[in-house]
Amino acid sequence: MNRSEATEKLNGEILAINQEMEAELTPYRMKLQEINNEILRISKPYKEKIKEKEEDFLDRFLIDRNGKTVRPGDIIINNETGDTYKVIKRFQQVLMRYLSNPRVVVLKLYKHGKIGKKEMSIFSAELKESYSIKEI
Q1: Cβ–Cβ under 8 Å, residues 86 and 75
Q2: pLDDT in tens, 1-23
Q3: Phi-psi region at 96: left, alpha or beta (left = phi > 0; alpha = psi -120 to 50)
Q4: What are the two backbone dihedrals, phi and then psi, of residue 20, each rounded to the nearest 5 degrees?
């Protein structure tokens, strides 16, 4: 038997072993998928409650100098420099537990409607002191 024939034989044998293994594993994969689906179903309302609590916290602490809640999509203006920014997300850092540092992440808006590419974080104290939501 030459190398080419031996390679073909090896490929056939490995394919047969893989097919046998897959046939044996399929019922377990189906059970595992059922378990994963059940985990997702059970955890969904809890994750929604957590998200709601996080959003309530951010609503309370990420406010502008006029007391308005700052949310993604808002345009904020620095009242000292006149620079404007688009809020793209807001969050609080988590490292084993929540750290007390809520912030918004923004992109600078330029005069001709261009949006900058560099993200910048603005923390709650600075947001409350120097920024306000720009009314459109």
Answers
A1: yes
A2: 789 999 999 999 999 999 999 99
A3: left
A4: -65, -45
